[in-house]
Amino acid sequence: MPRKRSKRGSSNWALFQSAWPRFDEYEIRNGYIRPTAAAKERGLIRGSGDVRAKRDDEVSRSKRWQPALGLIEFGDLLDANVRWNSERARPDSLGSFTSPLTDRDERQIVEWCNTHGLLGLLLHQVEAVFLYPRYQKSTDLPGFLVPTYRRYVRVGTLWYEGGDTDDEQAKRDGSPDVAEGDVVPTTDLKEGWLVSRVIVRSIEGSLNQRLRYSSPELQPLDRLWARYFADVSQSPVATKQHPYPVPGSEEFWGAYAEPVFDFLRVAQLLADCAKGLGKAGRRRGKDREDHAVNEAGARETLNLLAEPVQFKLAGSNGEYSQKLQSPSLLGDLAAMVIADAGQSRIVVCEGCGKIFATDAYQMKFCQETCANRIRKRRQSGKVA
Fold first, then answer.
1. What is the pLDDT of residue 14?
2. How far is CA 281 from CA 211, 335, 363, 374, in A?
3. What is the pTM for the complete model shown?
4. Positions in the chain whose pLDDT score sits under 50
5. Are the C-beta atoms of residues 199 and 221 closer than 8 Å to each other?
6. Which of 124, 129, 211, 280 has fewest C-beta within 10 Å?
7. Under a CB-based contact definition with an 8 Å cutoff, are residues 273 and 337 in contact?
């Protein structure tokens, strides 16, 4: 018996049933999106509240990529003044950002994060973290505190913790000059330890200027890394010596916060990509050439953002399935848009310019009102 052919594109969405950690309530405070104190008390949720967790046949295609679509629609609807400000705004310090948004805009951001979580922009770009050593109890020398060095390394989508100790600088526990958790003086640091550094492949450029990853770069902790920890004292010494938790842990997500500025840039970037992927349609001459440039930029940008996403095999006892895992929700969202673009379901309405998703291959308008308006204009000769 021949195998029944699945609906076009339906297999794509079984891939997005992976969990992304989130709290159930966020707020915008001092220019940062962060979990509320009450949400942290309730604990981390290991899984998104979006429709990716449902079976493929339970939701329509137009809803299956709702996490990406919701962010795209928000980025597209930001008025010109907000887009101008967000493109040129710069943080006046690591802990204070000016948000050029209305109360309604902020509510939309918070509602989206309540359902899907933060974008994980820091984890999308960082490959390794090397903390400043502190005195910890020794497992090999009972009754002594030894300089202990911790590092976190990302392999694929998972983070691993490692470290080293320096028994030669051991101090007896209870000594008046040292306590557990104290930072190790710079004069006592073991030679060869790489401390207070991160290895970063930061995202550079823009859609129009060719987005790309930088070469792996060794940075001090008080640059990109410290930007995402709003409650850590922003003095260079404090940010370099802070005992940051393991990436991906509940403690990490409780301390992690994303600048509104960064959220806006991602929303606008995804909206520009979605528009760039719209078909050339009736464009002519230079408009068609400009669209080809935007389309190429959108394609390269999405491929770049989805680069860290990996295929995983899940299941047991002969029942296996493919899953996609990403070190960040941003990577997940880019992969979602790519999956839909491959099935020609991302459409820019020819009537109002709104971005929407549809099952209909030839759909050109987001609603009948737009279709009727354009039809009347064509009949009157106002639209070519």
1. 54
2. 26, 25, 12, 14
3. 0.80
4. 1-11, 13, 49-64, 84, 87-98, 280-286
5. no
6. 280
7. yes
